[in-house]
Amino acid sequence: MNAHLVEIAKTVAPGAHAVLVMDGAGWHGSSALRTPDNITIVTLPLYAPELNSIENIWAYLRENCLAITVFYTYADIVDRCCDA
User: Structure pTM?
Assistant: First the structure.
């Protein structure tokens, strides 16, 4: 995650400041995390799927495309997800 933050920091325009919104994943709040000076991290509340738009996509996929399915191979899973 530290390497990722360094790469993000490199893309921030000189004199600008980035705000990075992250969910509550463990590595997003690790004490070993080193945030560059030109980035501020804003962490979403512990359980707030309505604030994390990707959660809506996962919920839709689970309910409409991936539910009640037996996958026999990894390729079956990938194919179904790509089709969805």
Answer: 0.56
